[in-house]
Specification:
Shape: globular
Number of helices: 7
Strand content: under 5%
Number of strands: 0
Order of helices and strands: HHHHHHH
Helix content: 40-55%
Largest sheet: none
Oligomer: single chain
Length: 179
C-alpha cells in the first residue's frame, strides 16, 4: 500500500501546473489520471481561452461526482457506452463551449432581463463589480451545472441533478487544495 501511495505521488507530480497545483490523492480513479490529463491538455492548453476556474480540477471533479460506470464515466449521455477517452473528450468540449458561453453571458449581462426591469429592481453591481443588474449565475460551476445536469431533465427521474453543482464544487475544492 505504501508503495502504491508513493507511486501515485510521483505520478501526480508530473501533472503539476505552475498556476495551480492539482491535489488528486483522493481521486477515486487513479488509473484514469494519465488518460484524462492527456486528453485535457489537448483541449485546455491552447492558450486561446481564459478559464474562470481550473479546468483540470473541474474535469476531475465532474468525473468524481458522476462516478459513471465504464463507458459512461463522465455521464455524457450522447456518448454512452463508449470508452473513457470518448467520454472525456465530450466532457472537455462541454467545458470549453460553456466557458465561451459564460464569458458571453457575463458580457451581455442578461440584456433581455435588463430591458424588462425597472431601475429600482436592478442591483448596484454585477458579478464583476460593474454597475449593472443581478446575474442568475454568479459562478462558472453553477452556470455549467445548468447545462451539464439541468434540474428537472426528462432523463433524471430521481432528481439526482439537483445535487450536481454542490457535489462538483465539493470535489473541485478538494482537487484545488481548498482554494
Amino acid at each position: 500500500m505504501r508503495f502504491f501511495r508513493l507511486l501515485l505521488k510521483d505520478l501526480l507530480s508530473l501533472f503539476k501546473d505552475d498556476k495551480e497545483e492539482l491535489h488528486l490523492e483522493s481521486f477515486s480513479f487513479p488509473d484514469e489520471i494519465p488518460t484524462i490529463m492527456k486528453i485535457a491538455r489537448e483541449y485546455f492548453d491552447n492558450g486561446k481561452l481564459e478559464y474562470p476556474v481550473n479546468p483540470y480540477a473541474l474535469l476531475f471533479a465532474i468525473r468524481e461526482a458522476e462516478k459513471g460506470r465504464k463507458g459512461f464515466e463522465f455521464g455524457i449521455i450522447i456518448a454512452k457506452n463508449t470508452d473513457l477517452e470518448t467520454q472525456c473528450r465530450y466532457a472537455c468540449q462541454t467545458i470549453v463551449n460553456n466557458v465561451k458561453r459564460f464569458h458571453q453571458y457575463l458580457e451581455e449581462g442578461e440584456r433581455s432581463a435588463l430591458s424588462e426591469r425597472s431601475e429600482d429592481e436592478l442591483c448596484s453591481h454585477s458579478a464583476e463589480g460593474k454597475p449593472g443588474f443581478p446575474l442568475k449565475y454568479n459562478d462558472f460551476i453553477t452556470f455549467l451545472g445548468s447545462r451539464y445536469a439541468p434540474i428537472g431533465a426528462d432523463n433524471d427521474p430521481h432528481n439526482l441533478n439537483a445535487h450536481w453543482v454542490r457535489n462538483v464544487k465539493f470535489f473541485y475544492n478538494i482537487f484545488t487544495g481548498g482554494s
